[in-house]
Amino acid sequence: MKRILYLYLFCAHSLAFSQEERPKKFISQQIGTLGFGLEYNHGFTNRFSLRGNINYFQLNQKITYSNTVLFEKYRLFRIAGIGVIADWRFLENVPNWKVSAGLYLVSRKASETRDYIYVNEDFTEDLGRLSIEFSAFPVNPYVGFLYGNFKSTKPITYSIEFGTLFHGQPKVEFTGTGRIEQTTQQVDIIRDNVKNYMFYPVLNFKLNYKLK
């Protein structure tokens, strides 16, 4: 009788442990510096998981200003990407922290266009247009940290991700037309000013939905 009781207690303890430690799967919604996105997280072991995500954000802005010269300014910022990331729980007794590394394929563009018009009581003159565009290499390695309540038994959990993408030295294109076209000769100065901006910060807040 005692043997049967010990066997029962051992099996019950093993079953409870396996249920608690079973790798989890999530579908997540996220918002942050990469825009709005969806993510799938697949746990392979208790300490290692892989996730894939897709993100998108776009901002358009138009500003009109009039003094002696009327100018219209058009701004665009767009980022879209897909990523594959590995997460590792590097401390056995600290389940809420993970270190992350992966690769993103990113389409990133920041541009501004200005139209200049000289305005007088007697006449107006189109002075031309200036356009500047910043872009970067699309394949970006990623490193970061992930924090969340991963041990929670609730169906919805949260996590916060912070890290950085490496995209190399930004590319600059500066073009112009009309009388102000000569301003584009300063493109080398602009390239020198932005040459050290080789990293893109990543900060994401996630809501995770557990899959059974």
Q: What labels would you give this structure?
A:
212 residues, 8-stranded antiparallel barrel, 13% helix, single chain, 2 helices, mainly beta
What can you tell me about this protein's structure?
By secondary structure, the protein is mostly beta strands. It has helices at 2-21, 187-194, and strands at residues 25-32, 35-43, 48-66, 69-88, 97-119, 124-135, 139-148, 156-166, 171-178, 199-211. Strands 1-2-3-4-5-7-8-10 form an eight-stranded antiparallel β-barrel. The longest helix is centred in the first third of the chain and has 20 residues, at 2-21. The two termini are 37 Å apart. The model is unreliable at 4-20 (pLDDT under 50).
SSE diagram, text form:
Blueprint: H1 2-21, E1 25-32, E2 35-43, E3 48-66, E4 69-88, E5 97-119, E6 124-135, E7 139-148, E8 156-166, E9 171-178, H2 187-194, E10 199-211
Q: What sequence of helices (H) and strands (E) makes up the elements? A: HEEEEEEEEEHE
> Main β-sheet, in a few words?
8 strands, antiparallel, barrel
The neighbouring-strand order within the major sheet is 1-2-3-4-5-7-8-10
Report the total helices: 2
Would you count the extended β strands for me? 10
What is the C-alpha radius of gyration, as a whole number of Å?
A: 26 Å
Low-confidence stretches: 4-20
Mean pLDDT: 87
Q: Whole-Å distance between the termini?
A: 37 Å
Task: Give the overall shape.
Answer: elongated
- What class would the helix/strand composition place it in? mainly beta
